[in-house]
Amino acid sequence: MRKEKVLCTLEEIKVISDPFRFKILVLFNEESGSLTVKQMAVKLKEVPSKVHYHVKELERIGVLEIVETKEKGGIIEKFYLPTAEIFKIKKDIGILEEDEYEKASENLISIMHEDFLESMKSKTKGEKKQLNYGLTYLTDEEVEELTELITGYMKDKEQRENAKPYMFGYALFRKHDHEGDIGNGSES
């Protein structure tokens, strides 16, 4: 498994931004090994045919791959794993239409929001939770630097003894005031 895979085409972005496909990928963060379509279907409480279709789409763009096959009762079971630990969307893709970008962004945000709300409701004793929110003022260069710092830090963390899996998300966006201007109105 590679450390990182960059999604560079409109097709890859459309495929991975589907909410159900994102849920399939999240399963691999919760599990320590490979999964069959049937195992995924059980965990997602869905029919295997639906899961199979979406797994095939993720496999087609190189996000999932078959890592093992076993024969069981005359049927070949295929075991899948993600091809990378981290998937990134190329920043300068430049081919997304505004409405396609908005739809892909909304899908990813709604999935992360759903997972976040579910984890915040969790009552597991001793479970660590962290939520930060605030306002800061950054130059475009500082935004790039902060993004590189955060992704670099998270990218270097691997499975190891005493480390537990945590979902993380990172959102940084321009603040608009009530009159539609950006920031405090001093922008030109």
Automatic annotation (TrEMBL):
Taxonomic superkingdom: Bacteria
SUPFAM superfamilies xrefs: Winged helix' DNA-binding domain
Gene3D superfamilies reported in the protein's UniProt record: Winged helix-like DNA-binding domain superfamily/Winged helix DNA-binding domain (1.10.10.10)
CDD domains: HTH_ARSR
Protein name (Swiss-Prot/TrEMBL): ArsR family transcriptional regulator
